């Protein structure tokens, strides 16, 4: 059976989020799948000819002039009729939780339930969007995709739906994340005043469920010789309720054992991973947890929280910790930094587990879901 697909691409923008990355990887691959006859791209009421244009920052040039805005406003009824007709003859996939009214019977991807579990970490506008449209999208959907089996079970239970209507399709690290020689990464690291194997890394939004506060407490408890040899680098956006954590990092920065790097350019991030002596991800709630997979693919030993889907996704390759037990967390971090036997095994296991995941596999298994619905 040949499939005609509409893929929503509203998450595509110059600085890709995790969902944006997922949407982009599907957008690149679906048109080339044997079972797929055609793919159209849809974004907030518009048809997009080339989704790659959404990745370019066009600044003020993106704005429509007055005539274009007037024509769009006054032709909305005609466009709605046209769009509904197109959607009825195609399978709509909303990779960012939602289906439009014309996407009845389509597929949505629910990456996690943090909007319901941790509403304080989301802006008010997003909470309102979910209140208005999420349940409607679930009711319209013919099938739901999640990023892992743990989230699949959680979503089926939360929504009180038949688990057979939910399928786990795992994400993957980009091929840019792979082991690299010290010579290959040294020039980039030098711009951050870093040396290969001379620091630990955490890539995460700074917000309560990520447990960065507990990580900082544990790092401060490390023996001075250990934490000074391997200062902690934290990179990622500043989320809600992060002021106290930011203040703690500023204090630790003055003392020399932690640095907050903020956002790191996409071109630099794989090299920053590859140069780390250890990657730490203490988040207690994830829908997949892509950063630990990126670290494993880079050949870096990984420590994650023994929570949510992280044990499943890391597949036995990572050291599991309870971030709230700060004393034990600190002991495990010291082991992960100095135990050469564990580190060698963690690198080998991590590369093996990360190799299970690929964006080609993700696209292939996504098309299998489409076939179930059609």
Kindly describe this structure.
The chain has 374 residues and is α/β, with parallel strands linked by helices. It folds into two domains: 186 residues, 3-Layer(aba) Sandwich (Rossmann fold), CATH 3.40.50; 173 residues, 3-Layer(aba) Sandwich (Rossmann fold). It has 16 helices and 13 strands. The strands form two sheets. A seven-stranded mixed sheet has the order 3-2-1-4-5-6-7, sandwiched between helices. It has a six-stranded parallel sheet with strand order 10-9-8-11-12-13, with helices on both faces. Helix 13 links the parallel strand 12 and strand 13. Helix 8 crosses helix 14 and helix 12 packs across helix 15. The radius of gyration is 22 Å and the shape is elongated. The protein starts with a strand and ends with a helix. About 1% of the residues have low confidence.
Please outline what is shown here.
The chain is of the alpha/beta class.
Which CATH architecture of the largest domain would you pick? 3-Layer(aba) Sandwich
Strand content: 5-15%
Structural class: alpha/beta
Could you say what the CATH topology of the largest domain is called? Rossmann fold
Count of the domains: 2
Shape assignment: elongated
CATH class of the largest domain: Alpha Beta
Query: How is the quaternary structure best described?
Result: single chain
Question: How many strand segments?
Answer: 13
């Amino acid at each position: 059976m040949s499939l005609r697909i509409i893929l929503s691409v509203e998450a595509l923008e110059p600085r890709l989020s995790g969902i944006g990355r997922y949407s982009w990887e599907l957008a690149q691959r679906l048109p080339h799948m044997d079972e797929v006859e055609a793919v159209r791209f849809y974004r907030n009421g518009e048809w997009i000819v080339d989704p790659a244009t959404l990745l370019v920052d066009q600044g003020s040039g993106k704005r429509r002039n007055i005539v274009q805005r007037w024509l769009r406003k006054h032709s909305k009824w005609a466009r709605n009729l046209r769009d509904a007709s197109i959607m009825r003859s195609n399978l709509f996939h909303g990779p960012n939780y939602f289906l439009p009214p014309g996407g009845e019977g389509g597929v949505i991807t629910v990456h996690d339930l943090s909007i319901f579990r941790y509403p304080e970490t989301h802006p008010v506008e997003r909470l309102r969007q979910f209140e208005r449209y999420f349940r409607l999208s679930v009711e319209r959907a013919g099938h739901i995709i999640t990023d892992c089996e743990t989230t699949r079970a959680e979503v089926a239970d939360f929504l009180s739906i038949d688990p057979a209507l939910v399928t786990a399709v795992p994400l993957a690290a980009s091929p840019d994340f792979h082991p690299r020689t010290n010579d290959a990464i040294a020039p980039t690291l030098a711009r951050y005043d870093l040396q290969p194997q001379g620091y630990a890394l955490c890539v995460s939004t700074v917000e309560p469920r990520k447990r960065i506060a507990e990580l900082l407490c544990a790092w401060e408890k490390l023996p001075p010789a250990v934490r000074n040899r391997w200062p902690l680098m934290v990179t990622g956006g500043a989320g809600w309720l992060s002021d106290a954590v930011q203040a703690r990092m500023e204090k630790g920065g003055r003392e020399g054992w932690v640095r907050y790097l903020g956002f790191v350019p996409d071109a630099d991030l794989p090299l920053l991973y590859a140069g780390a002596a250890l990657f730490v991800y203490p988040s207690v709630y994830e829908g997949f947890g892509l950063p630990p997979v990126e670290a494993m693919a880079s050949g870096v030993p990984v420590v994650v929280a023994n929570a949510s889907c992280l044990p499943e996704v890391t597949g036995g390759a990572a050291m599991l910790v309870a971030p709230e037990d700060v004393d034990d967390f600190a002991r495990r971090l010291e082991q992960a930094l100095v135990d050469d036997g564990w580190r060698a095994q963690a690198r080998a296991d991590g590369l093996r587990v990360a190799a299970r995941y690929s964006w080609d596999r993700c696209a292939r298994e996504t098309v299998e879901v489409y076939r179930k619905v059609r």
